[in-house]
Amino acid sequence: xxxxxxxxxxxxxxxxxxxxxxxxxxxxxxxxxxxxxxxxxxxxxxxxxxxxxxxxxxxxxxxxxxxxxxxxxxxxxxxxxxxxxxxxxxxxxxxxxxxxxxxxxxxxxxxxxxxxxxxxxxxxxxxxxxxxxxxxxxxxxxxxxxxxxxxxxxxxxxxxxxxxxxxxxxxxxxxxxxxxxxxxxxxxxxxxxxxx
Length: 196
Fold this sequence. Notes:
Blueprint: E1 5-12, E2 22-28, H1 32-52, H2 72-79, E3 84-86, E4 89-95, E5 99-100, E6 106-107, E7 114-121, E8 126-135, H3 136-148, E9 152-158, E10 167-176, H4 178-189
Antiparallel strand pairs: 1-2, 3-4, 4-7, 5-6, 7-8, 8-10, 9-10
Helix pairs in contact: 2-4, 3-4
């Protein structure tokens, strides 16, 4: 968001709601008129989406092929990391600088403090699903990078309490050619402190 506003959380409150409703939390500091302008801009953007499509979509285009056949080299080339390959899908997991739990113990990649991207479909018709582990100062740049590349943010939340530094988790989903998706996710990864 702009005008001094930042997205701080995105999540659902209900099961089985139709249409499915997400709750986006925002925070900001600054002049009241600038903050108000930012909120009005967000409300206008929601109104524009509804004007284009009165009913929310229930999918992003036609289904991907039933049998995945992703070329691992296209994903690995973008990330510079070896991927795990299974049933034609490719997953890359990148560790980040560790955090410390309340007990003082280190929590790192092996315990889930990592960023990952999983690709399915074909090289020309792929989806990416994944999770970013970010510090508070990395959240807004990563959000803007993903959204600027057309990748959808699904949720923003925490997994732990009392850790230092605080780690937030951002779930995302995108669709397109695998090379483009991989390059766009890697661009956002480059905005974070990784350990690999």
